[in-house]
Design goal:
flat, alpha+beta, 3 strands
Length: about 70
């Protein structure tokens, strides 16, 4: 069995409206075992965002945190 883990990353719009990133944004940035599970979760939570494979997620995180790492 192949694991096709993905990351659901909320739209940047959510980040710009957060009062507390840890409480408002982080709980909505989640790992899922498959793209289908991520889509289902996003629909159930009416959450807009991107579904990234782990390589894409790593690239996004590297760019986002490059000033601190």
């Amino acid at each position: 069995m192949t694991l096709d883990a993905v990351l659901f990353r909320p739209d940047d719009e959510l980040m710009s409206t957060c009062e507390n990133v840890y409480e408002d944004w982080c709980p909505n940035s989640n790992l899922f075992a498959s793209r289908e599970l991520a889509i289902r979760w996003a629909q159930q939570h009416a959450m807009r965002g991107r579904i990234l494979d782990l390589d894409e997620a790593s690239d996004v995180a590297t760019r986002a945190w490059s000033d601190v790492i």
